[in-house]
Every structure is written in structure tokens, then in C-alpha cells.
Amino acid sequence: FKQPQFGSLPQTEHFRPETRAVFELKVHSFSSGRSICRPSRDCRIFFRMCLKHSQNVIDPEPPCTYGNASTEALSADPSSISESAPMKVNVSFKWPGSFSLILEAWITDSSGSKSTGDQDNLLSRVASLGRQTVGQQWSQQVHQDNQSQLGFSYRVVCINNYHGEDCSSLCRPRFRFCVVLLLTPAVLCSVSDLNYCTNHRPCQNRASCTNTGEGSYTCACRPGFSGMNCEVETNECDSNPCRNGGSCKDLLNGYSCACPQGFYGTDCQISAMRCADGPCFNGGTCQEADTGGYSCRCPAGFTGSNCEKRMDRCSSSPCANGAQCRDLGSRLVCRCRPGFTGPLCETNIDDCASNPCLNAGTCTDGVGGFSCTCTLGFSGKDCSVRSSPCDFVPCSNGGTCYAHFTGPVCRCPPGFVGARCEYSLSPPTARPPAGGDSSPALIAAIALGLMTLSLLLCAAVHVLRQRVDARLLPAASHRARPPAVTESGLCLFRISQKHDPSAIVPPLSLAKDGLYHPLFIIPEPTEQSVFATEVRL
Questions:
Q1: How far apart are CA 433 and CA 428, in angstroms?
Q2: How many CA atoms lie within 13 A of 536 on its CB side?
Q3: Mind listing the pLDDT tens digit for each residue in 400-415?
Q4: Nearest CA to 263 among 283, 239, 243?
Q5: Residue 81 belongs to what H/E stretch?
Q6: Of 11, 107, 109, 331, which has the fewest Cβ atoms less than 10 A away?
């Protein structure tokens, strides 16, 4: 057999180191306080393992320097999880003994694939520092916090003819060889037996066998057995199988360990994670628990049992009044709707602060705007448009509208009364009864008509009295001087009345000195007029 020369290999080929050991991890149980089942999605999860070199502070981010592996998508029931195949990471170097382990539980995405891009699908993350010697024995751990519980075990075994405590010794097996004599048909084989353990399996009760030479071996017995081939069953507690101060109780074909506080497992070999293991991520503060274990106090913006998840601060809807929330990582920003301000859009902007209503209009603040209640003679959104009250309330049946300080006044034509001349003074013509007899319904209708007519007459008398109280001065019978404004804001007018028998003068008994009285001036078509709500005599 000719050894290959590395220098003769083509440049496109690379030397791949041979795998020496395998790190195996098996998940036994998992439970979570979060709801794994979601609408329109199967309850399927998977586990992901990241194996790194030993670190004082474990970084959950890649790369996984030793390797990574994951399980298939599993049903969320306990039987599927416990029966899942172990995850394996091949080790092509001398096993160092110490490592950093990150174990995660994920929900499959909407398509059922094993994606780790959406952090909302992360159910749990365990980070631990450990030491593991090479061998067939499994080391068990149970990680428990306020949200989940994860039980798993792991081991490191040598493969590909590597042996030793760190899988660094290569020992290839020897093969028997036979010599065929040409002179006789007999075949003489060598009598050497260098692999006695494999060929004969002498060790009993699941003891481990080690070849020590040609035809020799030794058995490493499990607790409770002794003898050359571990065939003698003894008191299982004689070998002190309980670790970390646990007390042993001998049982039939077995034993049980009562573990001290902070330790678990069959032999009390599982230690609850502590703050020294660095389980808190993203700057979280670790605190030792009184009953063993730990708890993480997360900084602002992070959550989870190990502070491994970034918190969406907009999920609590901090922005008020329908504002849009944006989480920028270092700070929270609220984009306010029109009409609101403040860090959380909690303040309603006073749109009346700038006095938008003109001409003595009254402003009412709203959401993102305002409304104006205009004084008589003005209209528009901000009361900037000069108008007449008669533009909005026309008189019916040919009535004439006049602007009064109390509102529009209609002058009705003969035969009509009412605030808008909407009532007719002519009573409706009643039909004679078909049978000639007066029915109760007809009598009631006549009575109602008479009452209506009485009310209309009373209204007409009231309107006529108002018209008598207000006297009209013709434009040609008086002379108005320019108005004067006093310091208190009063506008004074002086009117010189001519001795015209056609002029109508208010009775002197109605006017009292020192009191305010309404003044009603009706403009002529070709003359300008002055309108005042009140004057002082």
C-alpha cells in the first residue's frame, strides 16, 4: 500500500480531517407556558443545538465553532419529543473536554419549514457551560424557568477507530490471517485473539469490557455488581453512586438517591444552572434563587427567561388618540394624527388659541379643527363673510324679510300669518257629510279648526302690536350726522327729524333716559343704512 503524497493532490482538492468523535444530544421532555398551537397552523416544533468553545460569557449569535444540528419538525406531544432521534455534531479534533452549549426550541413557520428568522417563533433558549468526558454514559440536565421546562442529555463518543480520553489515539484493528499449505489441504490459522471483548463478550450485567492483550480483558462493573465478569450482584449503595452529597437507598435490582437542594438526576449529577454559567443575554442581570437556579432581570427593550428576545414596545399601544407607533430600538416614536401633539400624542391642540373666528364669532375647539358660531350678519367658516339673516330663512307665500337684531322678521301679505308667513287665515272648506248626519269625527275636526283659527288670530294681533311699537322714519324726513364712538366703545347717532306729518315717531312713554333700547332701521333701496342692535338714550 502506497501512502498518498499531499503535494501530488490537485490544487482544487482540499484535505478534510477525519471525524474523531461525535457529540450527541437528545431531548427528553419540553413544556412551555406559551401557546404552541396557533390558528391555521399545525402544532409542530423543532430543536436546534449550537456547540461552541468554552466562553466565560456565552454569545447566542453565530458562529457555532464546534458545529450545529437540529431535529426534524416534531409534533408538540410528549411522546414525539421523547422518541425523537438525537442531534449529532461531528468533532474532527481532539476533544477538549469543555464546551458552551446553546439549545433552542422553535415553532415551525406558516409553511411548516424550520426557519429561525422570526424571533416570535422562539419558545425557549438554554445556554450553559459544561464539561464532558468521553464515554457511553449520558449526562442529564433539566432547565426550568418561569416560562418553560426543558430536559435533555448528552455524551461524547469516539468513532473511526479513535480511542482515549480525548479521542486522540488511533488504533486500527488487526485481522486474522490464514496460511494455506500447498502440500496438504489443511488450513492453519493464527490462534491470536486480540479482540476478546468483541468476539466473546465476557462481561455481564451491561458492564464495559476492555481488551488488555492477546486473549485477556477486564470488566468495569456497573454499581451493584462485582466479580471478574461482573456476575455477582451486590448492594448497589456500596459503590456510593449518589453524587454531590446525595444519600443512597438500596432497592431490588437498583437504588435511589435523595439529592440535596440544587441537584437533580438519578445520581444527583445534574446541577441547576447558576449565575456563574452566564445564562442572561443582552446585558441582563442574573440573580441566584433561594431554591437553586437563577432568574434574569432584563434591561429595557428585552424579555424572556434569559433576556433573549427583543421586546416590541409598540405591542402595548403606548401612543394615544390613534397615533402610529414605531419602535426604533433605542427609542419609541409616536406619529400623531392632525390635531394632537406630545411625546405620546396625548395632548389635543387648541385650534381656538389663535382666535380664528372673526367679527366677534364664538370659537369651539374640535379634533384637528374648529367651528365658529357667527354673530348676526356674518357667516362662513371663520365668520369673514358679511351676510343677511334673510339669506338663510326666506319668507313663504310672498312675505317680505327684514333683518332684525333678534333674527329675520317676515312681513306677511294679507291672508297669511306666522313667523315665516306659513299659515293661511282662510279656513279649509269642509265637505258636507254624505248621509246628512253629523258624526263625532266631523264635530272634532270642526272644533280643531276653530281652535287653530283662534290661535292664528292671536298670533296676528301679536304681530300687529309689534309693528305698532316700531315706527318707521322715511329717508327724506331726517338727517343723520356721522357717528361718534365714545371711550367705552358706544356708537352715538344724532337724528334731526323734520316736522313731517307723515313721519312716524315712537311714543315718548316707551323711551327712558339711561336705558338701552333696540333700534330697528329698514334700509331704502338707494340709501345706505346703519344697523345697531342697541342704543342708549
A1: 15
A2: 9
A3: 888 776 778 889 999 9
A4: 243
A5: helix 78-82
A6: 11
* DSSP class of 532: -
What count of other Cβ atoms lies within 10 Å of the Cβ of residue 370? 19
Burial bucket for residue 152 (CB in 10 Å: 0-12, 13-18, 19+):
buried
Lookup: cell for 408: 329675520
In the numeric block, the cell 435490582 is attached to 253
For residues 125 and 150, the answer to whether their CB atoms sit within 8 Å is: no
Q: Which of 302, 367, 313 is nearest to 336 (CA)?
A: 367
- pLDDT above 90 covers a percentage of the chain that reads 18
Nearest residue to 225 via CA among 210, 242, 208: 208
Tell how far CA 531 is from the center of its chain. 63
Nearest-CA neighbor of 242 among 225, 254, 228? 254
Rounded to the nearest 5 percent, the helix, strand and coil shares of the chain are 10, 30, 55
Q: Measured in Å, how far apart are the chain's first and last C-alpha atoms? A: 137
What would the 3-class secondary structure string for 338-368 be?
A: CCEECCCCCEECCCCCCCCCCCCCEEEECCC
How far, in Å, CA of 313 to CA of 296, rounded? 19
Assign domain 275-310 one CATH number from 3.40.50.300, 3.10.450.50, 3.30.450.280, 2.10.25.10.
2.10.25.10
Q: Which single residue is written with the C-alpha cell 364669532?
A: 361
- Give the domain ranges of the chain: 21-163, 275-310, 314-349
Beta bridge partners of 105: 47, 124
Same fold, 275-310 and 314-349: yes
The cell numbers describing 316, all together, are: 402595548
Residues (pLDDT < 50) of the chain are: 1-15, 177-191, 471-482, 484-512, 515-516, 520, 522-537
428-440 residue pLDDT tens:
655 555 555 556 7
Q: Residue 475 corresponds to which amino acid?
A: A
Q: Which three cell numbers stand for residue 14?
A: 482540499
Cβ(148)–Cβ(30) below 8 Å:
yes
What does the radius of gyration of the chain's CA atoms come to, in whole angstroms? 52
The cell for 85 is 432521534
CA distance 513 to 534: 14
CATH topology classification for 21-163:
Immunoglobulin-like (2.60.40)
Kindly list the distances between the CA atom of residue 176 and the CA atoms of 163, 170, 172, 354, 435, in Å, as whole numbers in the listed order: 22, 20, 13, 106, 140
Task: Return d(Cα 384, Cα 29) in angstroms, integer.
Answer: 77
Residues 55, 100 contacting (CB under 8 angstroms): yes
Q: How far is CA 489 from CA 375, 384, 483, 492, in A?
A: 18, 22, 12, 10
Q: Which CATH architecture has domain 314-349?
A: Ribbon (2.10)
